[in-house]
């Protein structure tokens, strides 16, 4: 291609991308590694300014300028797909998991394969090799994973309702059923009216095996987490008797009114509301939601806010065996573009920067902020400094954004935030305990590192077949035969191919 | 009076509209093209910005359509991605999704033609009959308002009003019919809800163009018709409707090109696990595949197919219009 046609082609590509609604085009520049450009999801509402105090502190620590593009979290995957199609990739990009567009690009060579390189950098050497493997694509690591809690599942229950009815926290799914029934029928709020129910479940946007309450309950019943191993072969988790048993259990609760009847359409952003307003009494989600709800009660009843929220971890199934639903242990990774970082020397420079950003000092900077400015250390906890001028306000806001840059793949070395009051501290300690003990019974997905070719192209549609069929079955739109027929459809429309490819990859992995 | 039938009134109206009968023009020797171009050089200069605009922003991006015939990977680029011909179209036409999506899209399009297209005409005619101009203007302004709300707000309102057991409309319907309505999750209610939303949001705005056409009708015609004894119904049928007929035809042709545009946001926001079987249309399918899945080539092929159908429809509608002696768009 001559430079002119190349430019024209790029222009056409830009225009095509612009037609989708986004623009991300610029001229080819020689790699200038005094400034490292990064694309990062923005979780708050206000993107940090380029000259912010925190960014300057980070830049000083790593000895490079940073050029950060903050993209709202809700649009991040869409924006990433479009950016991949442009010719102006940042040096480093946060990738939120193994989404198809990324997998295809990585396998075509758009990102550096870091499998044999990470061990050369002390702060990028993974603390947990299992998570490193999980974050890989069939054993190849195309990024530095961002560490997260390996266990988060929790059952959150109205403490005051339990007390009213003289009930204990559940230990098994049978207990869960009994409590949900009592919450529905035994007037736990002493109102004299039939105005309460058991479990609150909102519309779930994800597909099958995306940590929905259904996925969690299936695991409690003994179904595999995503994929299971039977006789050395991988089988999809929904093609097991335990999957059906779990959903029969949920369907019974729905039919008996123990779960909100608009479970298929309720806005997931309002999940806390029925619990807080005293309509529903049980939420099955991540443990951090317990703290969020406790805060709601704190605003309403500052004296007794500790009396409303109880929390426990995973529940034993009908056979009495405790199986816990873990997380995948990471939340996406930082991938390095081969288009903007072209030589091994440049790659080394970028990896050194990421290495510096994972040192203990940098982790504290990214996750806690600047000591003495917005937090102080007390008993190994970070204590936020209240008040201060507007600069401190900005700093507090920026810390939540910059936490997205950190990987901590070498382990969490920053400070945890000190829980505010007595009830919060109690809840926090309890959470740590429950997570710790549940981790021993975690049911891991053996297929986590595997990405099959057919799954990349058809996976999302296939997952939706199962997720929709599950909801349709629970809502009574289809019966058990209909559910079985939908699972057959999954196999027929490409699922069988996925199973074959996954088993082939699985055999190669060992 | 009785012999002044409405037919003669209408014929009079038509004759009035066409007071210059077509005559064959005398043939004239035309100057060569070059001479004519030179003579009108400044007109061509004025044309340049428009041509450049279309070339850069409308035609150049069409080059990107080639990825529908490739296994396109951004890293490899337009020139490096392997050429696969019609593979993606074969996949589309043999996919089990295809007929479901085509059916959903066409059904919504059909409902749009039946209910949404005539609504502004009817409302415009009704408004036209209102004598009290302050009332007319008040109604006009208030029915424009929904046009300015985003689909997100419309969807949120719908969720509030039609929520299971607690929505005011659901409660009303439940007590009226003694049944338990589940508007938001029941596939049978999906299309009625979508059409209701579209009617509510777009009808008022759509009346503008018809009201403008109605304002242009010569009042003398009504006066003449009244003298001839035509009642209001007859006036509307033989004066008002013929007067806005060409506007209706043009609007119909324009609409036919967008027939398969079912409104991405609206449908995306109203879709859930229980109604997806009837809710998935080409627009949501392309978004799902292209943007969330990164299937660039396949989703481009789907979009291209949709565009081709749109072109066929617009030409077909134009041909039909001319066939029935109406002024077509081109």
UniProtKB/TrEMBL annotation, chain A:
CDD domains, alphabetized: PBP2_AlgQ_like_1
Annotated signal sequence range: 1-26
Database matches in InterPro entries: Bact_solute-bd_prot1, SBP
Entry keywords, A to Z: Cell membrane, Lipoprotein, Membrane, Palmitate, Signal
Keyword field contains Membrane: yes
SUPFAM superfamilies noted in UniProt: Periplasmic binding protein-like II
Top-level taxon in the UniProt lineage: Bacteria
Designated name of the protein: Extracellular solute-binding protein
Lineage: Bacteria, Bacillati, Actinomycetota, Actinomycetes, Micromonosporales
UniProtKB/TrEMBL annotation, chain B:
Gene Ontology cellular-component terms listed: plasma membrane
Gene Ontology biological process terms, A to Z: transmembrane transport
Organism listed in the record: Natronosporangium hydrolyticum
Entry superkingdom: Bacteria
Membrane topology qualifier: Multi-pass membrane protein
Region (Disordered): 1-30
Keyword check for Magnesium: no
UniProt xrefs under InterPro entries: MetI-like, MetI-like_sf
Keywords attached to this entry: Membrane, Transmembrane, Transmembrane helix, Transport
Chief subcellular location: membrane
PANTHER family in UniProt: POLYGALACTURONAN_RHAMNOGALACTURONAN TRANSPORT SYSTEM PERMEASE PROTEIN YTEP, PROTEIN LPLB
Compartment list: Cell membrane; Membrane
UniProt family annotation: Belongs to the binding-protein-dependent transport system permease family.
SUPFAM superfamilies reported in the protein's UniProt record: MetI-like
UniProt-recorded name of the protein: Sugar ABC transporter permease
Domain ABC transmembrane type-1, chain residue ranges per copy: 102-317
Membrane-crossing segments per the record: 41-60, 106-127, 148-169, 189-217, 238-260, 295-321
């Amino acid at each position: 291609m001559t430079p002119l046609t190349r430019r024209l082609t790029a222009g056409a590509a830009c225009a095509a991308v612009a037609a989708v609604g986004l623009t991300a085009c610029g001229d080819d520049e020689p790699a200038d590694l005094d400034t490292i450009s990064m694309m990062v999801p923005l979780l708050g509402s206000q993107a940090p300014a380029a000259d912010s105090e925190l960014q300057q502190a980070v830049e000083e620590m790593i000895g490079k300028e940073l050029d950060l593009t903050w993209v709202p979290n809700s649009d991040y995957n869409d924006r990433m797909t479009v950016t991949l199609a442009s010719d102006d990739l940042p040096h480093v990009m946060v990738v939120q998991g193994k989404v198809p567009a990324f997998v295809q690009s990585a396998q075509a060579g758009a990102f550096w394969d870091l499998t044999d390189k990470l061990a050369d950098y002390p702060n990028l050497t993974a603390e947990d090799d299992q998570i490193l493997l999980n974050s890989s694509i069939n054993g190849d690591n195309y990024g530095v994973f961002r560490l997260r809690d390996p266990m988060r599942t929790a059952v959150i229950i109205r403490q005051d309702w339990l007390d009213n009815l003289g009930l204990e926290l559940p230990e098994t799914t049978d207990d869960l059923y009994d409590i949900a029934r009592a919450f529905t029928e035994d007037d736990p709020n002493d109102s004299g009216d039939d105005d309460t129910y058991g479990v609150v479940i909102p519309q779930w946007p994800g597909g099958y095996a995306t940590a929905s309450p259904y996925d969690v309950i299936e695991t409690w019943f003994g179904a595999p987490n995503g994929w299971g191993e039977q006789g050395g072969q991988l089988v999809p988790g929904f093609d097991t008797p335990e999957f059906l048993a779990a959903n029969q259990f949920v369907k019974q609760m729905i039919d008996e009114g123990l779960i909100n009847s608009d479970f298929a359409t309720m806005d997931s952003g309002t999940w806390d509301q029925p619990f807080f307003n005293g309509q529903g009494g049980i939420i099955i989600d991540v443990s951090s939601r317990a703290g969020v709800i406790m805060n709601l009660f704190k605003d309403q009843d500052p004296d007794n806010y500790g009396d409303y929220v109880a929390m426990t971890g995973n529940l034993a199934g009908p056979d009495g065996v405790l199986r816990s639903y873990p997380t995948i242990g990471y939340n996406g990774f930082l991938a390095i573009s081969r288009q903007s970082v072209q030589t091994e020397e440049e790659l080394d420079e970028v990896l050194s920067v990421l290495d510096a950003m994972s040192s203990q000092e940098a982790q504290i900077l990214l996750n806690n902020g600047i000591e003495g400015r917005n937090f102080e250390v007390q008993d190994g906890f970070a204590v936020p400094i209240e008040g201060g001028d507007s600069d401190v306000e900005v700093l507090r806001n920026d810390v939540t954004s910059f936490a997205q840059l950190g990987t901590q793949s070498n382990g969490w070395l920053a400070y945890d935030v000190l829980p505010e009051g007595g009830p919060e501290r109690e809840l926090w300690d309890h959470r740590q305990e429950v997570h710790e003990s549940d981790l021993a019974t975690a049911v891991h997905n053996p297929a986590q590192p595997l990405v099959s070719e057919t799954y990349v192209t058809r996976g999302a549609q296939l997952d939706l077949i199962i997720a929709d069929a599950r909801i349709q079955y629970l809502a009574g739109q289809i019966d058990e035969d209909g559910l079985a027929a939908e699972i057959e459809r999954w196999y027929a429309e490409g699922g069988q191919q996925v199973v074959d490819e996954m088993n082939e990859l699985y055999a190669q992995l060992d | 009076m009785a012999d002044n039938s409405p037919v003669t009134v209408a014929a009079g109206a038509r004759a009035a509209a066409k007071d210059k009968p077509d005559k064959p023009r005398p043939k004239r020797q035309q100057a060569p093209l070059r001479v004519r171009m030179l003579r009108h050089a400044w007109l061509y200069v004025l044309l340049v910005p428009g041509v450049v605009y279309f070339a850069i922003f409308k035609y150049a991006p069409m080059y990107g359509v080639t990825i529908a015939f490739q296994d396109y990977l951004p890293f490899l680029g337009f020139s490096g991605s392997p050429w696969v011909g019609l593979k993606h179209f074969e996949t589309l036409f043999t996919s089990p999704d295809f007929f479901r999506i085509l059916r959903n899209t066409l059904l919504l399009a059909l409902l749009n033609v039946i209910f949404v297209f005539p609504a502004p005409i009817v409302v415009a005619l009704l408004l036209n009959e209102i004598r009290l101009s302050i009332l007319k203007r008040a109604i006009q302004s208030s029915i424009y308002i929904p046009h300015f709300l985003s689909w997100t707000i419309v969807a949120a309102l719908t969720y509030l009003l039609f929520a299971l057991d607690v929505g005011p409309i659901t409660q009303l319907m439940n007590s009226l019919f003694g049944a338990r309505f589940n508007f938001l999750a029941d596939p049978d209610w999906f299309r009625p809800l979508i059409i209701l939303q579209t009617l509510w949001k777009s009808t008022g705005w759509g009346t503008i163009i018809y009201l403008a056409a109605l304002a242009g009708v010569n009042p003398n015609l009504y006066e003449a018709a009244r003298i001839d004894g035509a009642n209001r119904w007859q006036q509307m049928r033989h004066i008002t409707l013929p007067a806005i007929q060409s506007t209706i035809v043009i609007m119909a042709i324009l609409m036919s090109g967008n027939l398969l545009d079912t409104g991405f946001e609206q449908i995306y926001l109203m879709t859930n696990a229980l109604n997806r079987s009837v809710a998935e249309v080409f627009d949501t399918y392309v978004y799902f595949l292209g943007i969330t899945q990164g299937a660039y080539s396949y989703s481009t092929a789907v979009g291209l197919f949709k565009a081709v159908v749109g072109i066929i429809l617009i030409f077909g509608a134009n041909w039909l219009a001319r066939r029935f002696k109406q002024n077509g768009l081109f």
